[in-house]
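User: I'm putting together a teaching handout on how sequence relates to shape, and I'd like one worked example. Could you take Prenyltransferase/squalene oxidase repeat-containing protein from Streptomyces olindensis, show the sequence you're using, and then write out its predicted structure as tokens right after it?

Assistant: Happy to. First the sequence, then the structure tokens directly below it.
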Amino acid sequence: MNVRRSAAVLAAVAVIGAAAPATAAPSPSPSQAFPSALYGDKDPKYDGVWRQSLALLAQDTVGVKPAAKSVEWLVRQQCADGGFAAYRPDPTTACDARTMLDTNATSAAVQALAALGGHDDVTAKAVGWLKSVQNGDGGWGYSAGGASDTNSTSVVIGALTAVGEKPDQVEKGGKSPYDALLKLALPCGGDGDGAFAFQPDKKGKLTANADATAAGVLGALGKGMVVKPGEKSDAACAQPRTREQAAANGAAYLTSALGKDDDHLMSALAGAEPQPDYGNTADAVVALAARGDTGQAEKSLRWLEENAATWAAQNGPAAYAQLVFAAHATGTDPRDFGGADLVKQLNATGPAPQAAERTNAADDKGEKDSDSVFGGWWYVGVCLVAGIGIGFLFTGRRKQQL
């Protein structure tokens, strides 16, 4: 629901000349300890706030109360002006001009903290920063001043909606985020029939992109990462003059793309063999379900249940969160996801949820309640699963064509 972040990150990294690996980042060395409050055990340089936000949002979605220290870690990542960087190893050091603030990380943090509640001051400052860096076309790029892209604009729309803002009223130069998305929607007919592009190329041409299309459908619907099945409105592909029509066109494109490869999407990185794209497939499920296209969404979810376990284990908390969002969107129990308990697997990548912490504390005092659903036996089982991080979150989900 990259959400929607890899192409934006890769573009930003290319601009500043700091090339990042497209696969899993290296595990920390014995002398390199990451915060105990952080979900995942891989280098958080590029995705710390993002994966933390997704993990906390997914836990809240399934009724799990995250560890207080994990929420506090996320809050302390915010800079004084309201924005969030991808990761700040020392949050006691003030942000400065060298701190690369990130619209995607900021928007993900807003969605997580708004869902958890009790952080209105933090989310208000973050939304204020997002508004301050809105582009003249109404959209957002990955970083302040960057060219608007579908993924970033859509995840910001999700943040605005999460705090009760009306995205169509958040304007810059008379343009709203929806205006920006409509400019990135391909017309009907020809290649990319009804899809969204990530960004125009240097000549202004739009090229269909499945990940951007999943993001664009959610954005055009005014939705965030967590959705429930919507009501489908049958509509043939037509010129995307309204956001609703653009969403319908994009959903039709995703349905067609998923159907070509046994109900899943394929990656298409230059120079690499095409591979199943689990993350983008999960995002497509959420987008289709949000618009009420539940038939294809459910077929693709079944494919994920059968095939995504290894991918999720390799990529950690954000990957588990994406699958939780996909399950939730289709009304599927994430605790019985093809026989796997996604909630237990997600919880195992970070600190114990608050209820489990309280139960363990009671056990230490000899106050164990054998009937408690959060008894020590349950969490011990969770802890036996190794904490799995996400390298560069974008391994399965964020394969873009820049």
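A couple of points you could highlight for students: The longest helix spans residues 243-260. Residues 1-8, 13-31, 357-402 have pLDDT under 50 and may be disordered.
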